Every structure is written in C-alpha cells, then in structure tokens.
Prior knowledge:
This protein is mainly alpha-helical. The protein has one domain (20-116). It contains three helices and two strands; from the N terminus they run ααββα. Strands 1-2 form a two-stranded antiparallel ribbon. The protein starts with 19 loop residues before the first helix and ends with a helix.
Amino acid sequence: MTAQLDLDLATARRAPRVSAADVAWFVDQLRGKVDWVTTKNLGATTEAQKRRLRRIKEMARGKIVSFPGSPGYKLLDHCTLAELRRCDAAVRSQTRRMEAQLKPVWRRMHKLELVENSPA
C-alpha cells in the first residue's frame, strides 16, 4: 500500500500587504523585551497570521531579527553578539540552499538563451 501526502497545494497567495503602522506596531510589541518573542505571544496562531508577521519583519528593514531556527522575534538592538552570529550563519546557510536550487534554473535559462539567440 502506498501512502499519499496530504499537502495543501492551494493556489499561490500574494504576500500580505503591510503598512508603516504595522511595522510600528510590531516594533512596539518588541520594545523593551530582552527575550525572544514567539509568534504565539504576538497573537499569531494561524499560518496566515504568522506569514503576516514574517512580511512585517521583512518590511521593517532590519529593525526586527528572526531567522531559521530562531526562537522568535527580537529587535536588532536587543540582540547579543552570539545571537547575531547565529542569525548570520543561519541566513547564509539558507542562502546557499536557495542558490543551489537556482543553479539548474540558471543552466536551463542559459541553454534556452543560446538556442533563442543562435542564428537560424
């Protein structure tokens, strides 16, 4: 018997819209907190809410820190050197994995460009 994965392959959703007020709210939630703040502590329980927090963090342009494997969110100015080093290592590792996924795409694009641009 074969098992089948139960994947939610809904149509791609656009990134949540966020405003400067959303960024200000998020920064305010983290202000004065030395420890990491989890998505649950921020009131995000659904995947859509967590995605919105990630988008707000992205739009905060570096003021808010979170990375693969981090315990939550924290203001950049409240991070220790060790935390920033873990962030650096995690993001660099993620970047390498993403680039590895793109290499076959780049090779295929290059092949297609050679074919499309070759003289007939």
